[in-house]
Known about the structure:
Distance between the termini: 19 Å
Number of helices: 5
Number of strands: 11
Helix content: 10-25%
Oligomer: single chain
Amino acid sequence: MNDQLINILERNLREGLPGQEVQYQMAHVIRRRYEPAPRSARKAGVLALFYPRDSGWHIVLIERNSSHPDDRHGGQISFPGGKFEEGDRNLADTALREAHEEVGVDPDTVKLIGELTELYIPVSNFLVKPFVGYTTVTPHFQPQLSEVRSIVEAPVEHLRQPETRQVTDLQLADNITLRKVPYFNVENKIVWGATAMMLNELLELIK
């Protein structure tokens, strides 16, 4: 596997992040005004994991189950991750623990190489810290059936193509429709919202 992409990513993570300006390029118009996180915001960590598949690098995403009525992100595509829990030493531990629980990735096989800009999600009151890592082995994914409806393996080269970025109308409820929502089309699944914002910053680092 050619590790040039990982070397570029690791170097750019050290040199500085593109930040909120790039994240908000993939935000819906109603979200394009920055909202600072309140003191009551809950902490969460997610993992953007690069791994080899066939002849190229991939990033793992998950389609979340929507069986929990209080889950404001059920049914959406996201990075593996979740809320900080007692017993986690830090948010990096949170991201690795959640990735292990949700998709079966052994934390010992993951090398963390940096962090993206944290992002506040008003609808769920989470302040999310995204961590970037990679593994040199192709994982054998095992979805946590209670939390994960499906695993989405996104080829990095596909994500980098301009036609992957599209716009659509999303019906969130019977009486709520968001117009002209920017998203990434990944295997005909809509990656939008906070995940698209974080993903856009990640892709900017490997341009």
